[in-house]
Fold:
Amino acid sequence: MVRLLFLLPILMCLGWYLFLRHYQIPLKQGIKGFSYIIAFNAVLGLMLWGLLLLTNR
Structure:
């Protein structure tokens, strides 16, 4: 299951892109959403990596 975590940001960005296309919002307006998705997944990845380091010792 952990091996598939790299799919999370891809699926979230794809969902956001499809949302923007459905409501005919230009990508330039939706770029902030992509940055939030990337930032959220980066924080999540760092937290999981930190937990892995803590529990591995």
